[in-house]
Amino acid sequence: MPTLDFKGKQFVYAHHLTVPFRQLSIDAKKSVPKDGKAGLDDSLIIHGDNLHALKALLPKYAGKVDCIFIDPPYNTGNEGWCYSDNVNAPLIREWLKDSANPVDKEDLERHDKWLCMMWPRLQLLRELLSNEGTIWITLDDNEVNRARAVLDEIFGEEHFLANISWVKRYTRSNNAKMFYSMKDAVIVYRKSPLLDTIKEPRNEKSDSGYDNPDKDKRGPWMTSSYVNPATKEERRNLVYPIKNPFTGKTVNHPSHAWKYSKEEHERHVKERLLWWGSDGKAEYPRLKLFLMEAEKLVPVDVWNYSEVGSSDDGGNEVKAIFGSAVFDNPKPTGLVKKILSICDNKRGVVLDSFAGSGTTAQAVLALNKEDGGTRKFILVECEEYADAITAERVRRVIKGVKDADDENLKTGLGGSFTFCELGDEINIENLLKGDKLPSYDELARYAFYTATGQTLDKVKHGVDFFVGETGNYRVHVIYEPDREFLRSQESALNMPLAERISKGVDGSKKTALVFATHKFMGQKDLSDMGIVYCQLPYAIHRVMGA
């Protein structure tokens, strides 16, 4: 497969692996908590560099996100974004010297910088995506072709699903000297072949052809032809006489076969599925197709503003909430709701790591209210307006916007979220000094993920420091965020504790991974007990086959 080469690619190729894990620090005052207590199990709005935020989400959400929607910088040269990833390479350090200067049209390396910015983030987004998940990316012609090449390389060319044209404008601008673009692109990829079918819900337009002129108890219906395009000579097995029950006449088509076998026809008659016209005198019958049995629709790759909203609609929605245009070029909620309806998981996790004005959160909350779903959103925004605009928009739509025209928006969409800042690095070396110690849950999730490659939804806080298990391992983390504890004998793996651990949790015979600062027993004894000792801070490692 052809690949795209660009300046800096060799330096950022594995950069996502070097990004440190960070703690997520909850700000309860800026949250709208569920049941009165802010927590990381709720929807999240994270303020901070999205590269670090995505890495921080891995221990809890790797392989758990059902739908990713991102609206990254289009790289038009007018957006004022800066390259700021701290990659240890001469070229990147040179770029960082100019990081105070936004990437503009005169920057001959602006496409390289954009690709270097996107590469590690796309790598982490792929890790977060579930095996049946999809990623949707809005772009325009400035970067869409380069993005396709990079996405083919990261997600696999075979996992490309669509390049959707979103017609976002009502009319052209005659001020343009050449062509005027009426559309943006929405690029769609899947994580794996486990997602083999995509359908979207039916809508008012698709259902408009259904009627019920005969008051059938089964509800509205439409009809399809009973006559086969194939001739009688071509489909002899589908040639038989049909009786019109209203006129008593026997009906044969002069040249063509029927679409259905005689056995199927008899079932159609028995189930009253044939329509002979309002007067019962139609030349040939038609088959009734009921709306209640109609399948969902295959999505198409052209979406019109009349269906999903225009770029103007996005701005008007923000004005309705804040009273003024506090954000440039926000996406309309209709666009994101359309995407979420296709993703079709009412209990799914939706991630937007370029959150902007918070459109994705509003779309999630609105759809939850409409269909009774319990979707969670995770928004990441690096700019200082993360609280004043992104989170504030979500607060207002949850509680209600007093002067809104939309009744749902006026009364409030309901929901909750926890606001977080990016905290300190989970730097295991700090355990040696007792500085900036992570909480027990944070270290447990980190150790569990880095050792097994799997996420830990809930830290169990079990007997003998048991935190969770995989198909092959039980994981114990002997730790407290207290320097005196870490320097004491209580933090050691000793014989009595090892004997208890070896008996297993609930009778399990799995191998035990035990993280501790030190041990008071030999490796042979541990091996005989089915225990693998992992020394903190050095032995945070991935155990294959977990």
Question: Would you write up a description of this structure?
Answer:
The chain is α/β, with parallel strands linked by helices and about 550 residues long. It has three domains: about 20-80 and about 120-195 and about 300-420, Rossmann fold; about 205-295, no CATH class; about 425-535, no CATH class. Helices cover about 30% and strands about 20% of the residues. A ten-stranded mixed beta sheet has the order 1-17-2-16-15-3-4-6-5-14, sandwiched between helices. Strands 18-19-21-23 form a four-stranded mixed beta sheet, with helices on both faces. A hairpin with a 6-residue loop joins strand 9 and strand 10.
Fold blueprint:
Layout: H1 9-12, H2 15-18, E1 22-26, E2 44-47, H3 50-61, E3 65-70, H4 90-97, H5 110-128, E4 129-139, H6 144-155, E5 160-167, E6 183-190, H7 204-207, E7 221-225, E8 227-231, E9 242-243, E10 250-251, E11 256-258, H8 262-270, E12 274-275, E13 286-290, E14 302-304, H9 305-308, H10 311-322, H11 333-343, E15 349-352, H12 359-371, E16 376-381, H13 385-399, H14 407-411, E17 418-425, H15 430-433, H16 440-452, E18 466-469, E19 473-477, H17 483-486, E20 492-493, H18 495-502, E21 511-516, E22 518-519, H19 523-528, E23 531-535
Parallel strand pairs: 2-16, 2-17, 3-4, 3-15, 5-14, 15-16, 19-21, 20-22, 21-23
Antiparallel strand pairs: 1-17, 4-6, 5-6, 7-13, 8-11, 9-10, 12-13, 18-19
